[in-house]
Amino acid sequence: MRQWMRTVGATLTVLAMIGCNGTDDSVLRGTVEVREVDVAPFAVGRVTSVTVDEGATVHRGDTLAVITAPRLAANLDLAEARLATARAVLRDLEAG
Questions:
Q1: Residue 87 belongs to what domain range?
Q2: Which of 60, 17, 67 is nearest to 42 (CA)?
Q3: Which of 23, 27, 40, 46 is deepest in the core (most CB within 10 A)?
């Protein structure tokens, strides 16, 4: 965490210095390394495959891993059964 804060602090210092020099001809290149990132799935499950290598560059929305979520599948089946029942009741009510 401290390394990350030092990196961010150094980056902000350099950006502030560039902003103060009044010229737009400064070019900075480099890599900002992040040591730790919290990643959390939307559902509880078991990881079945990891789709990226450690250290790979990823972007928002990239699939990092695939998980099985048996509870979600069971909940979906239950919701579909309830929907079918509700549609049948609606048909009966509309038929009179």
A1: 69-95
A2: 67
A3: 46
Q: What is the pLDDT of residue 90?
A: 95
Domain count, the chain: 1
Q: How many residues in total does the chain contain?
A: 96
Q: Tell me the one-letter amino acid at 53.
A: D
Residue 86 maps to a domain: yes
Contact 39, 67 (CB under 8 A): no
Cα separations (Å) of 23 from 17, 19, 26, 27, 34? 11, 8, 7, 11, 30
Average pLDDT in the chain: 78
Per-residue confidence at 45, pLDDT binned at 50, 70, 90? confident
Phi, psi of 66 (to 5 degrees): -115, 130
Who has greater pLDDT, 5 or 83? 83
**Taking the complete model, does pTM exceed 0.85, yes or no?**
no
Predicted pLDDT at 40: 77
